[in-house]
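Quick one, T. Sequence first:
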Amino acid sequence: MTHSNESSISISHVINGHRPELLAHYPVIHHQPIQWGEMDAFNHLNNVVYYRYAESARISYLQALGMFDGSMVTVLAQSNCQYLHPVTYPDTLLLGVRCKRLGNTSMAMEYSYYSTAQETVVATAEAVVVRLDNDGKDKLPWTAAERQQLLALEAEFGHIPEL
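Structure tokens:
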């Protein structure tokens, strides 16, 4: 299965025709070049930028599922990031994103930030997204079709989310 748009790259063609083994079980890979202006005073990628990258990767994931068409309302309920190695310009990160746990109205997502310059995972993160009704007031369950589609995408890459 190949998913592509401007912000993510083809799943089957990540780096010179292959995806890093460390991202083998992530169904969506978001391609993120580092910009010079994202560096901080210590000459490494500012910690806040990792959260913006996770947001872009999350959107890529929902787009791959056909769930980000403007009609779905989600809210970020929780997020965290663990910084493993500093990232410096120039570099390109490949963010592997997948569903860790699929609840009735929520989804726990996990991310691996792979540095193409360092050829290793430089950060990991998790986030919980809650689905809301169109008014953004009440929680709305995932439909059976949405659950099936998400689980099929994850299974294609050898990953089974907790239910």
